[in-house]
Amino acid sequence: MAIDIIKVKRNVNMTFWERIYIPEILRGISITSRHFFINLVGFIPAILFGKKRKIFTVYYPEEKLKYPDAYRGRPILVIGDDGVEKCVACGLCERMCPAFCISIQPAETELDKERYPETFTIDQSRCIVCGFCEEVCPKEAILMSQDIEIADYDRSKMLYQKEDLLIPEKDLRTRQAYVREAFARWNY
Ligand code: SF4
Ligand code: SF4
Fold it and tell me: What is the pTM of this model?
């Protein structure tokens, strides 16, 4: 994003009216008031007449921003294109998690991967969305999503089980591409 460079004018020669301050204070108050009232009622022409809105406030949750691919929301588990979760229950993410919020119960499977997570729980009330689990996973089985709507009054409802975490790989292509690009560049 291009950032305009603002040069500060030093040694400005003030006029008489600027020197007595009062008009400048009133001018400042009028500018602040103008912005205040525009922000207060500026949505009305947009809602009633469909005019382009001049204010920058995002009316969450009705309006939502598109986050960049690098954004880290809650971690999720990936279901591969073959319909099977990619996790092999190696336990690396569980071991790496600094908040100790991942809990995995591995089990054997007849599939090629030999092990799978019988249970996989993330305590989202403790997760600090650091992304270490995603970074350490050898199978691209856990990725950071763009879901940030996890707040709850009851901590027990923030325990996400495997069924709550699974998302098809086809819906995660952009994050997957970002992770491949980022981690390949760092060349761990
Ligand atoms: S994002 Fe960080 S805190 Fe959250 S589960 Fe992954 S490793 Fe743990
Ligand atoms: S999500 Fe990845 S790191 Fe965690 S247990 Fe599964 S395969 Fe291992």
Answer: 0.74
pLDDT of residue 2: 52
> CA nearest 141: which of 114, 120, 157, 126?
120
Domain edges within the chain? 15-65, 75-186
- Distance CA(167)–CA(170), nearest Å, equals 9
**Mean pLDDT for the chain?**
89
Q: Which residues of the chain form beta strands (DSSP E)? A: 75-79, 102-108, 115-123, 142-144, 159-160, 166-168
Q: Residue of the nearest CA to atom 6 in ligand 2?
A: 87
Distance (angstroms) between ligand 1 centre and the Cα of 48 equals 44
Architecture, CATH, for domain 75-186? 2-Layer Sandwich (3.30)
Section 122-134 average pLDDT:
96
Distance between first and last Cα of the chain: 29
